[in-house]
């Protein structure tokens, strides 16, 4: 993916997170897949040092 595609996906996920946090009973139906889990693990382990740098 290119930068624009990554930003669009990040924007979509940010909106989904906002809806989960603010709309009672909201469910996007998304299930974490292995790719998503890799990103979650990277964030939780500190692999992402700043917004524009990722060691994944």
Fold topology:
Elements: H1 3-22, H2 34-45
What does this protein structure show overall?
- The chain is mainly α.
- The protein has two helices and no strands.
- It has helices at 3-22, 34-45.
- The protein starts with a helix and ends in an 11-residue tail after the last helix.
Mean pLDDT reading: 87
Characterize the largest beta sheet: strand count, sense, and whether it forms a barrel: none
Number of strands: 0
The class by helix and strand makeup works out as mainly alpha
Estimate the strand proportion: under 5%
**pLDDT under 50 segments (min length 5)?**
none
Through-space gap between termini = 14 Å
Number of helices: 2
Indicate the percent of residues in helices: 55-70%
C-alpha-based Rg, rounded: 13 Å
Gross geometry: globular
Q: Secondary-structure element sequence?
A: HH
What's a concise summary of this model?
With 56 residues, this protein is an all-alpha fold. Helices cover 57% and strands 0% of the residues. It is globular, with a radius of gyration of 13 Å.
């Amino acid at each position: 993916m290119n930068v624009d595609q990554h930003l669009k996906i990040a924007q979509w996920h940010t909106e989904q997170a906002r809806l989960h946090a603010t709309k009672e009973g909201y469910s996007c139906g998304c299930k974490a897949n292995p790719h998503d889990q890799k990103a979650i693990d990277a964030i939780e382990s500190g692999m992402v040092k700043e917004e524009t740098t990722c060691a994944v």
